[in-house]
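Hi all, long-time lurker, first post. I run a small reading group and we've been trying to get comfortable going from sequence to structure in the token notation. Rather than ask abstract questions, I figured I'd post a concrete chain and ask someone more experienced to write out its structure so we can walk through it together at our next meeting. Sequence below, copied exactly:
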Amino acid sequence: MSKSSQEGVEASAEPFSQDPAKASTPDSTESPPSSLRQIRKDENKSYLYMVIFTLVVVGSVLIGLIYGWGALLTGVPCLLGGALMILLPWWALTLIEKWRDNME
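-- Answer (accepted) --
Happy to help. Here is the structure in token form:
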């Protein structure tokens, strides 16, 4: 091998010569690991808000457009009842989860 080709081999091997122990330790500039459980709770809460919004608001608009705006007098209480039937089990399960977390 010529001298120039040997320099290329050495230069390409240089990035892999780091100490493996240093590579596994986190830098002080990295953010702390996030709580996946908290992220899941936040996502589930946002999904709940989207479902309730879609049920009540979009459902009300569709009832108004299809059956007339006078039909909202009977449609909105039914949609709110449906939203309540979604929210009650959600609240119950949230309370059970908080109770379980306090037991640990």
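A couple of things your group might point at:
The mean pLDDT is 81.
The first helix runs from residue 3 to 13.
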